[in-house]
Each structure stands twice: as structure tokens, then as C-alpha cells.
User: Fold these one by one.
Assistant:
Number 1:
Amino acid sequence: MNDTLGQFIRLGLIILVLAALLGWAETAYFAPRRLPLCHQESLPPGHICLTTLHRDYPGRVVWIDARSASDYELNHLMLSENRMFPIRRGPELQRQIDAAIGRLIEANERGECIVVFCSKSCNAADDIAAELRALGLLEAPIYTLEGGWDALRADGMLIE
């Protein structure tokens, strides 16, 4: 009887140590890489969660990649030419807008929205979205993707 109690205590200690190790791994490794949940109602106007985008515009998005040229060259969304456009601040801005403007104008007729994204630490997406709104030519809704590139990666939209 005493031997059985000792085995239960050892088993309990092993389970306790494993639980502590798993908790540490979760905190140290997985949690920093996990995106916080996105709540549409808490976002500023003009921003959109990826879950809201999937619900309201399933497959009906024209993407604007506002990340730096080097980030874009490293990896980008592999979509057809008429669904994804790189538009970023700088001397090429007007040329890039001119290259995309015809398709962006068509977005409203097709029931699509325009979503601008950047990397998580970048504010260029808001600037580009504001620039597109200021044109006054686009009737389709224009959003900034909350979580940007990291949200797209977490959603499995990237082919790397």
C-alpha cells in the first residue's frame, strides 16, 4: 500500500513538472508570436480585422501592399496582377497609383473593397489609405488591415 502511494506521488510530481515546462514554453515561445485577438468594434474608423474582411468581403478584396520595397521583394502575396498592387510612399507613389487606378475604380462595381496593409510596426498603410481616399475617385470602401502582414501570415494567406 505504501509503495502504491509513493508511485502516485512520483507520478504527480512528474505531471506537475511537465505542466510547468509546458507553461513556460507557452509563455516564452508561443505567446510572443501570437497576434492579439482583433475586435472590429474597438478599431478606429477605416481599419478592419481579417475576420471581418473574410465575413463581409469573402474573396472580394483588392490588396495594396504599402510595405517597403525590400520587404515586398523578400515576399509578397501571390495573387493575380489585378488583385494586388504595391503602392508605397516615395518618389514612385504617383506612378504606382496611376498603374493601379483603373482597377481600383472598378472595385466598387465588382462589390469589392480595397485593403491596404503594411508590416506591424509600419504606419504607411494609414498614409496610403488616406492618399487613396483623398483622390476622390474611388467609391469602394478603403480599409487599413489591422495587424498587417503578420495577420496575413497568421491566417495562412502567404506562400513562403
Number 2:
Amino acid sequence: MRGVVAIDTCAIIHFMYINRFHLLKLLGYSVITTVYVQLEFEQGHSSSLAYYTKLINSGEITKFPLEIEDLVEMSNVPQSKRASDAELSCFVVAKRIDGKVMTDDRKAINYIQRYIQMPTDRITQLVEVLIEAYLENYLGDHELRPIQQTLADNQFIIKIDLANEAAKRRWMMGGYS
């Protein structure tokens, strides 16, 4: 088991676009989120709220309670448009339980890390999960480019060639003969 990952709104939506949320379970992650993520979904589009609700109701994601100390730590981070309470709450919870945080918002990551010290190996993004799934043979070569295109069609641009990067990492690990 790889551990617990606190996932934020944008990462969940990106999984919705590619219909691959099950990869987290296959990779051994236990997925949690916070009430602030739920609030963002409730303020968003009905399709993403329905997807989030389905994940909660099926037990794919567990709502994790915030403690007073979490709220105090969140209040010590100045409010900014660069990071939402949803992203911030996921960082705070992941830090407290020594888990990972998953967000695809690089600006939020950079901003929050100014105030909340978290090792970089405890922060993950969809690209890393997709590559990890590829390395574990849960995704094949033929799936990565369509996934990247689907994400691009939904305004999530991955700046690398995902299939090429995944194959390169497999080769570096000695996965090809």
C-alpha cells in the first residue's frame, strides 16, 4: 500500500475527464478529501458535483475531518487567489497524517509551500500518477496519448509528451529488454 493521499478539486475533475479514478486504488492509495473540497464542488458544475458525490457514496473517497489545529494552520496562510481553501486544507491534512497531497495546480503548490513545509515527495500530480500506473502496467502505451489529448481538450495542458516520458522512465528502470 502506498498510503493515504488527500486529493483536491482539480485533480478529481481531471480524473473525471479521463475516467481513470480507479488507478489510485490499483496503485494502493487510500483517497481522502476535506469539506472544503466538497464546498468547491457544490459551488461548481452539476456534472462534476455528481461525479464527486458518486465517488464519496461508493467509498472511493473518504471525507476526512479537519481538527482545530488544521484550521489554525490554515488561518496562518494569507488568503490568496493562488490557493483555495480546498487546496490548503488538503495540504494541512496530508501533513498532519504524514500522507501525500494531490493537486494539479502548480501555482497553489508553490504558494502553499511558502507557508507549509512539506517534502516534495509528499506532493503528487495527475501526471505522476499516470506514469506510476504505466510503470505498474495498469496503463499501456496506446492509452497515454489519448488521455493527454482528452485532458488538453478540457484545458489541462501537460507540457511533456506523456507517453514518451513514461517510456523513458520505464527504460531507465530497466523495464525494456
